[in-house]
Here is the input.
Amino acid sequence: MIKAFVHEEESILIRKIPEPTLKDNEVKIAIKVAGLNHRDLHIPERRGNVSTPLVLGSDGAGVIEQVGKNVTNFAPGDEVIVNPGLGWLHQSDAPPKSFEIVGMPNDGTFAEKYVVDQNYVERKPSYLSWEEAGVLVLSALTGYRALFTKGNVSANSTVFIPGAGSGVATYIIQFAKAIGARVIVTSRSPEKRAKAIALGADLAIDTEADWNAELKDESIDLVIDSIGRATFNRSLSVLKRGGKIVTFGATTEDQVTIDIRKFFYGQYQLLGSTMGNREELRDLLQFIEKHQIHPIVDSVFVLEETKEAFQYLQKAQQFGKIAIQVAQND
Ligand SMILES: NC(=O)c1ccc[n+]([C@@H]2O[C@H](COP(=O)([O-])OP(=O)(O)OC[C@H]3O[C@@H](n4cnc5c(N)ncnc54)[C@H](OP(=O)(O)O)[C@@H]3O)[C@@H](O)[C@H]2O)c1
Here is the structure.
């Protein structure tokens, strides 16, 4: 039996579950650190009252413990990270219909052991700590696709990102600065605004301020908004005519009303995005290594404290990512 953090019958709790078994194409990973994402908060509600336990968690890093007989790329002892985007290997405008994210409907990474097809495992970048590697993929890949593939950012772009404290935002700030773009963020918290500046943002304004007044001298080429209803129309109002707005989240609410006439007169471009494929993940791994980018780990909770970590994320207290330590580091 192994220890895992599961959703079961409307509760989230630590539980002993049977150790997962291995198929011929699969690897078994002894998870060292898993990463919490906003997505994890909503899964209990989305699943409802289900008696079968589901191991939560999409991100993780660990050491390969066992490989199936058809596995050629990995061997026991390899240090790896999990690719949570199942069923999306190649570049395309949108994921295939069969695309799924680790942690629902199938068991996730908040467990001592995790088993997955060898196609969804990459080598851990050696310059990252276990905590950094464990919180990397889901958010960084989402930010990478939103910024580069969809947003087509360049060194001449000015990028505007509401909600600087978000895990994804902390990656986008670093990626955009690495290529020389101008980065403007908002946050409701003065401490997070200061942290965003320390991370490289050129300007950080209060989310509650009058953005049009604050940004009257700026020309925003690209907005990346994942907050949803609370900011979407304000984000659109600071975008230059013909500019792009990329959305991949709705932290506040999903339903937004827009003035369609203003939208088409302004010739704005609205682009949806979701995570990313394996090609983008491999590009991302090269990109962060080249620019020596480190994930921002706000805090580390041990597996037994995962419920407290959920509450901490729910209150948006973090700046960056929250790690769940599953096994002691050597
Ligand atoms: N589609 C995908 O593939 C995908 C992948 C990753 C994430 N997402 C989604 O993208 C969003 C961001 O994810 P994340 O993990 O980075 O989130 P996160 O770490 O939980 O951060 C959310 C941030 O949103 C801001 N915020 C929250 N409530 C707000 C409000 N009422 N008004 C203004 N700002 C508010 C906060 O920024 P401040 O504290 O700085 O104010 C907060 O730190 C989530 O909705 C998530 O589900 C989607």
Q: What stands out?
A: Residues 190 and 206 are 8 Å apart (CA to CA).
